[in-house]
Amino acid sequence: MAGITIRRSVTTLAASVALMAGSAVGASAAQGPADPDVAAVRAALQRVVDAGAPGAFAVIRDHGGPERSRTVTLGKANLDGTAMNAGWRFRVGSNSKMFTSVLVMRLAEQGRIDLDKPLREYLPAGTLPESWSITGRQVMEHRAGVYDHTNDLLEQSGEETTAAFEKRIRNNVYEPRDLVAMSVKHGLQYTPGTAYSYSNTDFVLMGLAAEHLTGRPYAELLREQIFEPLKLRQTTFTVPQKTIAGPHVTGYLTNDDRTKPLLDSTEQTASWVWSAGGVVSSARDMDRFMTALLAGDSGGLVSDESLRQMTSVLPTPTAKISYGLGIREIALSCGKVLGHGGIVQGYQTQTFSTRDGKRTVVLFANASNNGTVTSGLMNTLEPAFCGKAPAKTPAKVTPAPRSSLTGNGNADRDADRWIPTVEDTRI
After folding, report:
1. Tens of pLDDT along 94-112?
2. How many CA atoms lie within 13 A of 108 on its CB side?
3. Per-residue pLDDT tens for 60-96?
């Protein structure tokens, strides 16, 4: 990819995306995506609110047929009573990994990093043990065996408790190399390349590599290479600054003791996840970023070849979920979508797009530490992308157990239309 600047305005990008039949991501079906099932989207978001989130929204942008674009909002942006606003800013959590991946792939295009050589060669001396031969590609695929340092910071592995948040997350400022050191002391968890295990440390390592190779702070790289060229005016990386500037949604961490009120977790340093989860953005900007990313050469972020590598996914232990280089693929009933999800205390986001970039869906809820909210939000992807479920012959079915992720009583019959919660439920 020649140069590192955006070569055409994003305002003209939608037209080029619609004509990308020969691009690296390939052509979509002759017709565009089905009309979103707005009633089902609203019902899914209502389940999210009923589960304990103050509010939720879905922003559906159809670049192939703008008349099919929809915005659905429910509930409150804060407990003071302000209505949810889909135009406001929020913490995107692990959606940040896609931004980090873009920076790394641009360095690969310039020949400054080889993703198939030991990553330690591209990091400050002593960051990783000399015996660790893990490659950048293995790290970006979460197949390097790197222990997730966030397990040491949270009260229990896999849980984002309110106690741990106040003790180690909200006000603490961690240096990225110290986060890596927490991980390294546990050693590699398995032979690199032989398994998949989601680790936030993986993308702290890639952020450190980007800084080391360029001599520039991670925040500056994001601003100069992504935020400013794409005119992402609502997107920032200000770690460890605790506040969110401008109009923003308030985030709430569900209390460990469910009899206690939600905890306002909006203000936090986010340094504990740094380049793995510290970006603040908006639905508008996330749509613009995804559209440019999936356009490959035409979008100006990464080349077609880089995009091909990023979207060459491998299976994970979670059904219907695959992972590439900082990008997740989810199999819906109408096809596969690409993007990422993110959970960081008080905020949950799912950002996905069709492979051709014709439709982008951004889903959001302002509560975390609540698995029912998480599963409900993910299950909004299906009606947003695939529209109405095809009519089926009525059949007597056994009611689904209360723990069903489908939110209905026909889990077996409709299993192909719902997806399980991904394994990285915290970030």
Report:
1. 999 999 999 999 999 999 9
2. 26
3. 999 988 888 999 999 999 999 999 999 999 999 999 9
Of residues 295 and 391, more confidently modeled: 295
pTM reported for the whole predicted model: 0.87
Which residues touch 126 (CB under 8 Å, ≥6 apart)?
none
Tokens for 232? 């992402």
State the residue for tokens 């869906």: 361
Q: Which residues are catalytic?
A: 94
For residue 354, the SS3 value is strand
Collect all residues with Cβ–Cβ distance below 8 Å to 32 and sequence separation of at least 6: 62, 64, 65, 68, 358, 359
- SS3 string, 29-52, reads CCCCCCCCCHHHHHHHHHHHHHCC
Do the Cβ atoms of 276 and 207 come closer than 8 Å? yes
- CA dist 68 → 29, 64, 71, 402 (Å): 17, 9, 10, 34
Token pair belonging to 112: 């400054």
> Can you give the pLDDT at residue 5?
41
Residues 88/268, Cβ–Cβ less than 8 Å: no
Tell me the H-state helices in 56-199. 96-109, 136-140, 150-153, 162-164, 176-184
| CA 25 – CA 349 distance, rounded (Å) | 24
Give the other-Cβ count within 10 Å of 227's Cβ. 22
Which residue is listed with tokens 């990783």?
A: 128
Residue type for position 108: A
Strands in 347-354's sheet, in edge-to-edge order, are 70-75, 55-62, 359-365, 347-354, 335-344, 328-332, 321-323, 314-315
Q: Specify burial of residue 87 (Cβ count, 10 A radius: 0-12, 13-18, 19+).
A: middle
